[in-house]
# Entry
Amino acid sequence: MSVHYDLHSHSTASDGSLRPAELVRLAKLRNIDVLALTDHDNVDGIAEAREEAGRVGLQLVAGAEISVSWGGKTIHIVGLNLDIENPALRNGLQKLCEFRQWRSQEISRRLAKKRIEGALDGARRFAKGNIIGRVHFARFLIEQGHAKDMRQVFKRYLVQGKPGYVPGDWATLEEALSWIHGAGGQAVIAHPARYRLSATRLRQLLGEFQLLGGAALEVVSGSHSRDEIQQMAQLCRRFGLMASAGSDYHGPENPYMDMGRLPAMPANCLPLWESPGWAQSRQTPAMASLSL
Ligand code: AMP
Ligand code: MN
Ligand code: MN
Ligand code: MN
# Structure
C-alpha cells in the first residue's frame, strides 16, 4: 500500500481555521500518513499537532511556510523537518512576526482612510491571539459586508494596488534557506505556479534556489492545475530539484484546497521523501547516534 503525504497545511496558529489537533485528526480521517504542519512564519502549532499525531498514529513533519521578498514579489518557502528549537530559526521567524504586527497596524490605517474603521481590532478578533495575516482582515471585511467571499475581498482590498495592501518586507531567499538548513530541514518552493512570474523570472528564481541548496519544488499543490503540475515536473528535471506535494489546506470553508484529494506525483519526478536527506532528518538524535 502506498504512503500518503501532505506536506503543506495550515492551522489556527496562522490563517487556517482548524486547531492543530483538529487538523491532524482530519488528516488521519482522510488517510494521510505523513502530514506537515506549515503555518506562515511560525511553529507555534507544532507541539499540539505532534501530540495529537502520536495519539492517532500519524507522522507529523514539523514545518513552516516562510514569507520571502524576492525581486519585488512575495514568495513562499516551505521548510520541512525543522528543529523548531533552533535559535537562528526562531529568531528569524520572530522578526517576520514583528513585521506582521507592524503591517497589521498599517493595513488598518490604510483601510481607515477608506472609512473602514476598527479593522485592526476586527482582524485581531479573528486571529484570536495568534499571528495576524491578511486572511484575518479578509474575514473582518466580509463580516462587515464589504465583500461577499474570500476571493472578492482579496481582489477589492488586499492585493497590490488596493486600499489595504502593504508591500512585504520579508526575509531574503538566502536568509530563509539558511534558517531552514541551520535547523536541519529541507527547503521547498511552495505553489511555484502561483507567483505570476514570467517564465524567465521563474527560471531565475529556481536557479538561485538551487544554488542556495534548495531541495524541491511543490509540484503537486492544491492550487495547481493538471497542466501546471506537468510544467513544474519538467522544471524539477531541468534544475535537478526534487518534488514535493502539499494541499495548502486552510480549513473546511476554503473549498478549493481540500485535504486527502491531491493528484498523484508525476512518475518522472523524484519525490522529496525518497531522498537520503529526508530519511536522515527524520531520525531522532538517538537513532542518528546508533547509526554512527
Ligand atoms: P499574508 O501572508 O498575511 O500576506 O497572507 C497570505 C495568505 O492569504 C495566503 O496564504 C492565503 O491563505 C491567503 N490569500 C492570498 N491571496 C488570496 C486570494 N486571492 N484569495 C484568497 N486567499 C488568498
Ligand atoms: Mn495562508
Ligand atoms: Mn503560500
Ligand atoms: Mn500555505
In short: DSSP finds eleven helices and eight strands in the chain. The first helix runs from residue 20 to 29. Residues 65, 76, 190-191 surround manganese (II) ion (ligand 3) (CB under 6 Å).
